[in-house]
Structure formats: structure tokens, C-alpha cells
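[09:14] KT: can someone run the structure on this one? pasting the chain below
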Amino acid sequence: MSPVLPALASDGESTRATLHAYAHAVAALPRAHALPHPLWWHISLSVRPDGLVTEAMALPDGGAALVRMDPRTNMVVFETSSGATRSFPMNAGLTATEMGDALIAAAAEFGLIGDYDRSKFENDDARPYDADDALGLFQALVTAHGLLAIHRSRIGGNAGPIQLWPHGFDLAFEWFGTRMVATSDMAESSEAPAQINLGLYPAGDAYFYSNPWPFDAGSLLDIELPDGAAWYTDGWEGSMLAYADVAGAPDGPERVLAYARAVFDAAEPGLTD
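[09:31] RB: done, C-alpha cells below
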């Protein structure tokens, strides 16, 4: 039986926003130094019991380094495979710019010099932080990660890793179908596999989401989703299940998994050849 999803603090948005801002600063390092992935997986963070962790970055003199955001100790830690660490507090009011500068200086100590995209993290706003709220959000991410892992295992097939994306500070993974879909941008046209995700967006009125791509409104919107979940078409096309509806409920994890399965079963025929 999966653990009950913890409730999120009703006044915890400022702390979540601080973690989000620091995640942008943290991700600047693997963006510059980790082995690039064509789907940008190298800039995401992994949710582990010891924190939110970057991809490994090879050091010039051997070994590797990573950066870990640890809400248990309220620290961002630059650490190497040799055991050397540099730590920076998340509860000291550092701006995102200051956190990014500190991490870049730590990386330079160990030989990592890069062309950093500072636009991703430069922000001089004061960063309020409540340790209890940060730990509660972290526990929610850890618990949600477990549910995503169960769903990922159940549906099988070609699925990506479960990732915390710094851009939106949302936790998600993608499942790729066999159908290829034409895409285009200003430069070129190409094809990409049809796909569906499952994720948790913890900001504001937090919610679980799953949005098939392409979204076939004609075949999907008439399919009823279970236990308070609903299709959503205002601004983006997909489905939602409010986090507050399942948090603290003994059957909450089962409701999340039932929702995820229902959306997948509805969308899967349109994602495969």
C-alpha cells in the first residue's frame, strides 16, 4: 500500500517559489557541464531520499560532481565523488543570483568553467523560506514520485525517467507511443513520437496532470474520468486531478493511480500505430 500523500501548507507558496528559483540556479551547472541529452533530460533534477539532485558532471581532473538541494538540512550542496563539498543555505535569504554565483564559484574551485545561461536564474528578489514548508513539499514530491514509479512500471513500454523540471518545478515522466507525429517550428519540420505524461504541479492549487499529445478532443472529452478528475482545455489540453482532493486520504494514492490509468487507457489507442 502506498503512503498517504501529505497535505501541502496553505501558506507555503513563498517557500515553494524560493525552491523553484534556486532550482533554476542549480540547473545552470548541468546545463553547461553534464552530458547533453537531445530531450534536455540532463538539466532536470532527480527526486531522491537525500534531496533533489542534478545529473553527474565530469571533473577535469577525474571523478564527477553533482549539486543536491536538500530540504532536510535546508542546504544546497555541491559535492564531488572524492567527498569534497561546498554548502550554501536555502534559509538565509540568498537571492537566486547569489545562489547561482556561489554555485558557479564552487564549480570553478574544482575546474568546471562554463558559459552559463545566467538569464535562467538571475533574480534579485528576497527569498523567503520556511523549513517546515520546504520539508513538507519535499515529502510530497517523494511520495508522488513513488506513485509515478508505480504507474510507469504498470504501463511498461518506452518511458522516460521521472524528473523534476526546473522550468516549471513540476515532477513528471513521459511515455512514448509508436505513432510518429509531424512537428514544425520556425526552422524546420520533423517528426516526434506521440506521447503521454503523468506529473505533479505543486504550485498554487496543486494538481496531478496527464496530457496526451496529440490531444484528440473528439475521442477524449466524452470519456469520463474517475474520482474528481476532469479533462482540461483552457490554455493547455489534458487532464487534472486536484492534489487537495487526494492529500491525506487513505485511498488517495489509489485514486491517483486509477486516474492515471484511466487517462492512459483513453489515450493509448491514439498514440500507437
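[09:33] KT: thanks! The radius of gyration is 19 Å.
[09:34] RB: yep, looked fine to me
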